Amino acid sequence: MNATEPLMRVRGICKQFPGTIALDNVSLDIWPGEIHAICGENGAGKSTLMNILSGALAPDKGEIFFAGKPINFHNPRDAQRYGISIVHQELSLCPHLSVAENIFMGRLPRLFGNRIDYKRMEEETVTVLNRFHTHIDPRKRVMDLNVSQQQLIEIAKALTMNCRILILDEPTSALTESEAQNLFVILEELRKNGIAILYISHRLKEIFQISQRVTVLRDGRYVATRLIKDLTPDDIVTLMVGRELNNIYPDRGFPSSDVLLEVKDLTRAGVYTGISFRLYRGEILGIFGLMGAGRTEMARGLCCIDVVDNGEVFLLGRKLSLSNTRSAIDNGLVYVPEDRKNLGLFLTMSVSANVVAANLRAVSYLGMVVPENEKNYSQEMVRRLSVKYKSLQQPVSSLSGGNQQKVLLAKWLAVKPKVIVLDEPTRGVDVGAKSEIHHILRQMANEGYGIIVISSELPEILGLCNRILVMHEGRLVAELAASDATEEKVMWYASGRAS
Amino acid sequence: MNIMEKSETNISSSRKIKFKPFKTLFSIREASLATIILITATAMTFLTPGFMTRSNILTTLIGLSMDGIITVAMTIVLVMGGIDLGVGSVLAFASVLAGVLAIKVGLNIWLAVFITLLASVSAGSLVGYFVTRIGLSPFITTLGMMSIARGLAYVLTKGSPLSLGVISPAFDYIGQGSFLGIPNLILILILLVLIFDFLMRRSAVFRQIYYVGSNEKAARLSGINVDRIKFGVYVLSALLSGLAGILTLARFGVATPTAGVGAELRAIAGAVIGGASLSGGEGTIIGALLGVILVALVNDALILLNVSVYWQSLVTGIVLIAAVTIDMLAHHRRTS
After folding, report:
1. For A380-429, what is each residue's pLDDT tens digit?
2. Distance in angstroms between the alpha carbons of the first and the last residue of chain B
């Protein structure tokens, strides 16, 4: 780093969304010619910050300086003009168009006013791709390339826009080991040319391999920026999690030794391997893992929704036929999805219609839904879960996030399940409703229902659960009793430190 | 305090199917449509002497009865989140097939009707198969069926209408007679509307159509057999279209290969004016019927006011966009 002042200064950035504070007074310096890692748990604010830096979001408060001058991005185009480009985890390319057309998206070179200058476009594409020592045909359709090549195209696109700061969001989550190493070679070259690279990742091994500095965020706040050479991976973990656990969680109840669910060797090629565990009556079992660990995929396989290559699931001793969702639900094993809007709720339909959706049989007689039964049933369920609503007929889309989550829970409770697997049940839910949901889950566990909670929130996992399973890259790497678990330990396993 | 047990004992499980009057279930959309229709009718009564006559009302109603049956079918398909562009063509195909079987082949008319209904079910099954098993989009599949059915109608009649003559007084009675002073076609339409509106509101199986249309992924996760619902709805749609075709034959006594042209667009317009959304999950049969009546009413008004018949398509389009825009502005809803 030979520059005398930072390329970009970020001061006091605050950003709030309804119900959550995403960023709270975050400040940061970015120097040219460095690879600067950004670390933090899910929800720490990394993506929000990057979206602000790349112009996709406007901060509520705070200032940004570029090369000493204050700036105000109104949209991503503004940021691109300054040379700030972002490559998202889900690549934003147009799959049906060619490599060259994607690289010059929105800036197609013109010939005589309105005709596209294909020749120049292809030449410049080839020039920029040569920097990566790859020979991708500029006319090839992007959908015919593999993920690692597509990612290269996105980076190439950034370079053609005179990129000075390149932001990469979890770039290696979709790459193989050797493709990742290729990427690192390219990044190092870019760095040597004076480009600053912001690298969001939770893979400590990579961060230590390629970056010079690391900034840690926690709960939307800035924690620290350190030189990588001054730290160990354990230090970073401590910085990511060090916080006090507030005692707002219900008591941990009385787990018994009755086995409700037994999972043996559940495997799906390339996604998760050899998952085996037991669920006991009375306990809340937590599953923790970072992005890419395979928790949701494993849960969906377990609940007979997605295809499984190998393994067995026994519910109360009875073997389930995998991939038969209706049968699993009828036997009492249900999965409450993470993405409640897209996968769980029927937004256009009423609260009561949502509550009875999985169990119409219970409110019907001779195949006809009895409105009185539906009304009574849904009324009971929403009362039990303290859902705040105006009328049972109101569309569920008009409820708040927390109440929507409760309606979703009510739908599955109405089926009278034996085991419920909840995927991020309190994501996007305000603190009050969160606590209510925790108490409801604990109550259900005490009444004998098997509860599995998948969560990325360490305090939630540690406060709520009796036992914690940790997944890393598709494997179960640890099983901890709540009494033995600390945030550092869990994160340590989840980051792959044990391997 | 037990979450699950208490909910069992406290809920009274009613064993009877209480039949509540539909009026209490009317949504705002249906009520406002009914109001608009009443206002328009009242205005017309004052503007033209010919409007509020028995013959005008009956003619208008008979005229919309076939479109009405098609609209019932289309509404159910739209609620499911799909679309059936072939309804008008299946109507023509059925009308022609029944006619050809009765006249050219010499079959008993009721046997011809039975075979035609089977053929309609087959057409629907074909669409259902391609949509659920092969995975083609409903738009493309039913567009294909639209051309195929229409083409078959032309082939069977070699392009010109086929007169039925006097085949069966009973058959003619259904299409042209009245019962208690009300034309049979209108009675049949009302019957179908009542049956299917009831089913859509109350049947557990038909309720699943709403779930599938509202959020197919969530429906699957809730244990609903999405493929079976889709297949069944396309079969039902073709069956109703076939029925409409047979009734058209009964009404006119002539098998016309050009029957039902444009019916699918009128049906979509009627359903959407009545509250259905192209993205699925919403819509009622009663609402769709009111939508069809409104458009027919406005067209009738124009005829009585000596406006040229060529304006009718234009009118359908304007009423459709007006209704949907008003709804969008009033509720900030999206139509698709």
Report:
1. 888 888 888 888 888 888 887 778 888 998 898 888 899 999 998 887 77
2. 44
For residue B25, give both structure tokens: 């279930």
Residue numbers in A near B3 (CB within 8 A): 384, 413, 440, 443-444, 447
CB pair distance less than 8 Å for A365 and B15: yes
- Residue B77: name the closest of B259, B260, B268 by CA: B268
Quickly tell me which residue has 């006090």 as its tokens: A244
B3–A357: do the CB atoms touch at under 8 Å? no
The b/e string for A254-270 (b: 16+ C-beta within 10 A; e otherwise) is ebeeeebbbbeebbbee
Task: With a cut of 50, say whether residue A137 has pLDDT above it.
Answer: yes
Nearest CA in chain B to A340: B218
Chain B positions in Cβ-Cβ contact with residue A391 (cut-off 8 Å): none
Distance in Å from the first CA to the final CA of chain A = 34
Q: Are B78 and B230 in contact (CB under 8 A)?
A: no
Bridge partners of A16, per DSSP, are A21
* Contact flag B202-A305 (C-beta cutoff 8 Å): no
- Summarize pLDDT for B153-175 with one digit per residue, the tens: 999 988 788 887 777 888 888 88
**Cβ within 8 Å, pair B7-A345:** no
**Cβ(A367)–Cβ(B205) under 8 Å?**
yes
Indicate the pairing of strand A115-116 with strand A213-218. unpaired
* Chain segment B66-112, per-residue pLDDT in tens: 999 999 999 999 999 999 999 999 999 999 999 999 888 888 889 99
Contact A342 B223 (CB under 8 A): no
Residue B5 has pLDDT above 60, yes or no: no
Reported ipTM: the value is 0.77
How high does pLDDT run on average in chain B? 85
Residues of B with CB under 8 A from a CB of A: 1-4, 6-7, 10-18, 20, 202-205, 207-208, 210-211, 214-215, 217-225, 277, 281-282
Q: Please indicate whether, in this complex, the C-beta atoms of A358 and B217 are within 8 angstroms of each other.
A: no
Starting from the edge strand earliest in sequence, which strands make up the sheet with A259-268, in order?
A: A272-280, A259-268, A310-315, A318-319
Q: Is B18 close to A372, i.e. CB distance below 8 A? A: yes
Q: Which residues of A touch B (CB under 8 A)?
A: 305, 325-326, 329-330, 335, 337, 342-349, 353, 357-358, 360-361, 364-373, 376-377, 380-381, 384, 411, 413, 416, 440, 443-444, 447, 449
Among A355, A363, A369, A394, the residue to mutate for chain B (most B Cβ within 10 A): A369
Tokens representing B179? 């019962």
Cross-chain Cβ contact B281/A345 below 8 Å: no
Instruction: Tell me the pTM.
Output: 0.76
CA distances from A271 to A88, A175, A232, A278, B277 (A): 21, 13, 29, 21, 38
